[in-house]
Amino acid sequence: MSFVSPGFLVFLPAVLALYRLTPWQKRWMVLLPSSYFFYACHSPWLLSLIFLTTLVSYGSALRIERAETRKQKRRAVVLDAVVCLGILFIFKYLDFALGGVFSLLRLFGVESGFTGFHLLLPMGISLYVFQTMSYTFDVYRGTIRAERHLGYYALFVSFFPQLVAGPIERPGDLLPQLKAPNPLEQEDIAQGVRFLVRGYGKKVLISDFLAPFVDTAYGDAASAGGAAMVLATVLFALQIYCDFSGYSDIAVGCARLMGIRLTENFRQPYAAGSIRDFWRRWHISLTRWFTDYLYIPLGGSRRGLFRQCLNILVVFLVSGLWHGANLTFVVWGGLHGVFLTAETLLLGKQQLKSPLGRGLHRAVTLVLVCFAWVFFRASDLSQAVSILQSIFTDFRLSDALTGLGMGRVELILACLLVFLLPLLERLPALSVRENQLRGRYALPLLYFLLIAAIAICRCLVLTEHGATAFIYFQF
User: Fold this and answer.
1) Is 168 in contact with 130 (CB distance < 8 Å)?
2) 196 and 174 co-located in one domain
3) Do 379 and 231 reside in the same domain of the chain?
4) 384 found inside a domain
5) Given the residues 323, 336, 361, 465, the one annotated as active site
6) pLDDT score recorded for residue 432
7) What is the pTM of this model?
8) Which GO BP terms apply (predicted)?
């Protein structure tokens, strides 16, 4: 089951009804089995990994709090990190690491017929491992108390709206909300619906529409031509943003209908005026995680400019590897690290005041981000290099649409959908007062039209292409 599967249209209302009918002290008994059921629809036996990471981090936090010496606390947090990261390594990176070892051995003439274990990658494992680690780290630092109630803690780890693709929530933010009464409020319902409409609009109307054209170009990049690959990369930038931020919006909307507020994971990242600003707007919860639990412990900017730049590079290389066991992701992360390091060395913290300067910086930032997306989307490094070569040596404007499998009608639709995006972005900012200013039925009518459009397009997508999975499910 996923947010775009027909079963979810039954699952969510049923959970919300049971949630509201249950006394608030026992609502965790509704949400916890519902969350496990939601995940089990993907891969039932992989629930055991969630159980294991939950029990290990729960026990480690209690040991940390009960420990009498700093050494005992450190042992407990290290044990938790080793177990959780060990699980992540085995299921996500073991074949990648062994492939590197065997490639190195082949340089010395040692051949092996071993092709890897090919373990099934559990969905959301990178997210819930990081979330459990943030919990034990915070208990170790003394910023929160260890949660005694295993049911509430298990729900914190597996809360279904954000289990598979985030946002990565802090225990100090989410745990108290899971234990609160969360009465039914009109504003929560209104905001929840707005986020749901925005999320489904981004995913179904824009991301799923663009996906086939991007897949066509990147599936045959050798013959698509440079112009087609530039256009495909720009479309991929829109696709992945609408796909991932769409998921996050749906997650926020589902939780908001329960009175629970999750982190807004995106704030119009392609309007960023610098790479640093881009990462303040893109996958915000992951950026904060790496800042608090890796960048600052490494020394942050406290140990001089050289160490700061080194820390930035380390963080972005790890971030790239977090996204996937492929050198393309490592290069993608490394490029952003290089961009941000260069920005730090050349500009420091100075702010551009002229409109022309800010506009130029936005344009340069967008070009750099799209350049890095080539490596993120490419199947391997050789394809990424081939695409970049074709952009500079085989730039044929006449074949741009042909290389994407796109006609003029599809191009016009794509342009219209791009213009629709700002309207979708603004939905959560609309307040009840705007209803009074623009007419009592203006916003309900707008919601109805958007939902109807989403429903119609969803039927078309299901009929012609089948359900399109969220991109970040693979991470």
Assistant:
1) yes
2) no
3) yes
4) yes
5) 323
6) 46
7) 0.91
8) alginic acid biosynthetic process
